[in-house]
Sequence to fold (203 residues):
Amino acid sequence: MKRCRMGISRLCAVVIAAACLPIPGWSQEKAEKPLPNWKPAPTLLRQLGQEVRRDTYTLRPPKGYLLLPEEYQKSGFDGVLWVGRQRADGTRPGLTLLIATPPSEIKHSLTPEQALDAHLASIRRNRENWFQSDVQRGRVGGREFIRAYWAGTDTRRGFDLRGFVYLTLDGRRIVTISSQDVAPYEKRTLALAEAAALTFRKR
Fold:
């Protein structure tokens, strides 16, 4: 989108701050419940590009998306941003892969839910008419993920936005895959971005 870099430095700071929160107990029932395997639709796989590697992780972004890594390098976190073609109204879809590691002095390990709440809170800060789905749990590439979908109106530009966030913990690392776009374009672009998210693998 026209400004699809959503304050990455602020987002990372909020996620890391969540690591200081107390950890709720995990029920045995939740831990043992079988998880669905989330996979991209075969029809959408043909619209994805070649596998891109970042650190020990890979992902296939949509074909034609442009890689813009500079924002993450400036903020001190590892990750990449892909953007689609800019439209006549100045908007364009975005897809991000973010890898954040809390500083060693933070002793608490955060739960996936805490990290996801922090990520969504950073998005919600500049949204009105906020909607957020229930958190879902599944597997992507053999790894346990949680995900949530959201919608809201951008308070600065008035655009109606839709998006999603996938999140997994890899040791102390917080790995998020997220996308957003303007309505009504999101009906197509978010499905494609989610297919890309579901190609995530750790090598």
User: Anything to note?
Assistant: Helices lie at 8-17, 28-32, 42-45, 70-75, 112-124, 186-197. The chain has a mean pLDDT of 86. DSSP finds six helices and eleven strands in the chain.
